[in-house]
Amino acid sequence: MHGHKNTFSKKERLCRKKIISQLINGEAVTKIAEYPLLLVFKNTELPEKVPAQVMFGVSRKSFKKAVDRNYLKRLLREVYRTNKHLIYSKLIEKNMQAAILIVYTPNIICDYQKLQKSIVRLFEKVNQHIA
């Protein structure tokens, strides 16, 4: 990516059904938990020329109202967008591509700061795993 451009383009969204099912079914993936998030990570070739494609999940069982699920996914996208440089730099350095699924696990709504801390720690753990 170009420097520290905090964008989240369509190319960075994970849409390929085959890759999504591999992430969900746990086929050769790395799972890293950091409350309140779970990150499912897989080194794979992506259809786009981006270091990573990402998808966000919030349980329908935990949040019955779509409004709440959408709010949390919006928060997750924002936190990812502002911190993705932490993981992009390592992926670019190693010339790798990754598919990432970020799942919100608790059944209460956490604030932005908690999500921010969690995603930074998750990305640090992923970087250690990549190294």
Task: Set out the fold topology.
Elements: H1 17-25, E1 30-34, E2 37-43, E3 52-58, H2 66-83, H3 85-93, E4 98-104, H4 112-130
Parallel strand pairs: 3-4
Antiparallel strand pairs: 1-2, 2-4
Notes on the structure:
The chain is of the alpha+beta class and 131 residues long. The chain has one domain: 2-Layer Sandwich (Ribosomal Protein S5, domain 2). The chain is 42% helix and 20% strand. It has 4 helices and 4 strands, in the order H-E-E-E-H-H-E-H. The chain has helices at 17-25, 66-83, 85-93, 112-130; strands at 30-34, 37-43, 52-58, 98-104. A 4-stranded mixed beta sheet has the order 1-2-4-3. Strand 1 (30-34) and strand 2 form a beta hairpin. 25% of the residues are buried.
